Amino acid sequence: MDGERIRKRLKDHIKMFNYKISPEQEEEIITLYELNHDEYDENILSLYIEKFLQTVANNPDPIWKEQRRPTVYAKSVSSDSFQLPFFPKTPETTEFLISRLGTDIPFCLLSEEQKYSLINSMHPMEVEADTELIKEGDVGEEMYVVEDGAFEVLVNGKLTNRLYGGAVFGELALLHGIPRTATVRALKKSKVWSAEQTSFSCIRLRNQIYKMNLAREAICENAYLKSILLTKEDIQKVLNTSSSVFVTANSSYDLNDDEVAIVLGNAKIIDESEREVHPKDLITVSFYSDTNLECLVLNIKEFKYR
Ligand code: CMP
User: Fold this and answer.
1) Ligand 1: does its nearest atom lie under 6 Å from the Cβ of 140?
2) What would the pLDDT profile of 147-174 be if each residue is shown by its tens digit?
3) What is the pTM of this model?
4) Closest CA to 106 of 224, 205, 232
């Protein structure tokens, strides 16, 4: 994904419509767009800008809609001021939802706080038998966790699977920005918990920003990286081309000579010795991990010999 190109088009778009967006908000929109799309598309990017502003303003008729008027300012907000919906839950429900969302990608990549934010934002829904909760090909706006009931999954009209209590569905379209991959229909009266796409994206975005900030701190605190990444631009360049990697428990990850990994969680690994690693630690050679481990792999080829 060409981050520079997006950044430039974003700036042009903002200028054209006279939006007032802070540099952090620009970064957030770009990150959100990159998370969901592999290619640049002007219309989708415009939608992202508008959706982002709607979300941050949390206002059905936000003032930023009055475009082309230099005196009108969008509400000044950062990712911290996203207003997530809040639906109180019993401790049992929270525990149930944590157990369902805690283990699978992408949810296991969220911090505890982010998981709880997502769960707090979920609302209950009663679904009558035969209701098509999701239709194949539609745009995805919610994901669901089944508390009780039964659903069938149909692809091209053919029964592909059945889902029962504890199942999570409807996450694919939200995660990848693609149309719904299947139709999901209730086989009987069921109860589900639903999370909105905006909450889901907002939490993922926060997570992305959290990880980037953590990586930035790690670079500044590490003597080696500090000695080769001399300016803010160097750091940004390396972060823009970094890749987020999830190493599953009991597996190896090969780092080539031009790569280093910044650890984003706690894990037990074997590289040159057996050791425990923590957020912001650096791994410089291929390693084996005993536990699930998320890290950010940086390519430092351009910087290491200068
Ligand atoms: P999404 O594509 O957003 O909407 C339809 C959902 O059905 C999809 O996310 C998955 O959560 C779920 N789904 C798709 N295919 C299958 C399958 N073969 N088995 C179980 N669930 C599926």
Assistant:
1) yes
2) 999 999 999 999 999 999 999 999 888 8
3) 0.65
4) 205
